[in-house]
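quick one before i forget lol
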Amino acid sequence: MPASIQPHLVSTTNEIPGHRIVRPLGIVRGITVRSRSVVGNVGAALQTLVGGNITIYTELCEKAREEAFELMLRHAAAMGANAVVGMRYDANEVAQGVTEVLAYGTAVQAEPAG
């Protein structure tokens, strides 16, 4: 994670508790596109037979979200932000077995309130 953006300064709301937004900098995003491997699909199919959480897909999804989040923070830091508000995730299948994961929000400069 970029040193200039601390985890507590990323929010899904339009504000950051205990901070005041002094300057909005614009929309930032991080995008990654992932595909499932043949080996992963076979392993997931076997897990499906047993039932429950399909850990192979869970790990793939978590890694994709983490990467998209990291890219969004880098984009925000490059714009001079120290925080991101209104953060969201989105995912779309762009081809069979190929998924796009997008993390986006508004880059801001924030300072402690008071």
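fyi The first strand starts at residue 19 and ends at 35.
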